[in-house]
Write a structure and sequence with these properties.
The structure is a single chain. With 207 residues, the protein is an alpha/beta fold. It has 2 domains: 81 residues, Ubiquitin-associated (UBA) domain (Helicase, Ruva Protein, domain 3), CATH 1.10.8; 108 residues, 3-Layer(aba) Sandwich (Rossmann fold), CATH 3.40.50.150. A 4-stranded parallel sheet has the order 5-4-3-6, with helices on one face. α1 packs across α2 and α6 packs across α7. The chain is elongated, with a radius of gyration of 21 Å. The protein starts with 11 loop residues before the first helix and ends in a 12-residue tail after the last strand.
Length: 207
């Protein structure tokens, strides 16, 4: 944070306005949202607390964390990577270095699958290839109570993230994650196959 944020006047309101001004000066398009998210994560002051008591002082230890967050955001690091999580389908997903961020436009895949399912209470078997954070599979399992899923990824670190996310959302008993090369060695049958692999530039694809 700036010098003013470390003074005796480091109130909730002053710190937020200081952070917002820094982000706006850096032409960050989502300055207001980013400031709120980072402040809430670093100082445990959410929107409600900020509005309810803007004059309350913030402890120095929280300001140090927020200062680090601010420097990282100003250097161009996305908020999702700073916080290590991102929301998808109304669920919060943990990220790590082996996973890509779940993107809002990928929710159309979840919508398409759900539109295809005639009976949401059916005991469906779902296979997710290149599962990453597990966001697609876990989003579907959150909507299909009797379904079971299998997520496969070539990265053990990505599988760790997916397993953590399943546990976080109470879906660990509904899904199995494993390291593998797409569908090699998998037993079926599966009712649904989903996949949203990383996008590859056309120039990088062998002709």
């Amino acid at each position: 944070m700036s010098a003013s944020a470390h003074s005796d006047a480091a109130t909730r309101g002053a710190v937020y306005l200081d952070l917002l001004e820094q982000f706006r000066s850096a032409d960050i398009p989502s300055a207001e949202l980013d400031a709120r998210l980072l402040m809430a994560a670093a100082t445990q002051v959410d929107d409600v607390a900020l509005i309810a008591d803007p004059d309350k002082l913030i402890e120095a230890q929280y300001l140090d964390v927020l200062g680090d967050f601010a420097r990282r955001r100003l250097s161009g690091e996305p908020v999702s990577r700073i916080l290590g999580r991102r929301e998808f389908w109304g669920l919060s997903f943990s990220l790590n270095n082996a996973t890509l961020d779940p993107r809002p436009d990928s929710e159309t895949l979840v919508e398409a699958v759900l539109a295809h399912v005639a009976d949401r209470d059916a005991p469906l078997q779902i296979l997710d290839l290149g599962t990453g954070t597990g966001c697609l599979l876990l989003a579907l399992l959150s909507e299909l109570p009797n379904a079971r899923g299998r997520g496969v990824d070539c990265s053990a670190e990505a599988i760790d993230a997916a397993q953590d996310n399943a546990a976080q959302h109470g879906l660990a008993d509904h899904v199995t994650f494993s390291v593998g090369n797409w569908g090699e060695g998998l037993d079926g049958p599966y009712d649904l196959l989903i996949s949203n692999p990383p996008y590859i530039p056309t120039a990088d694809i062998d002709g």
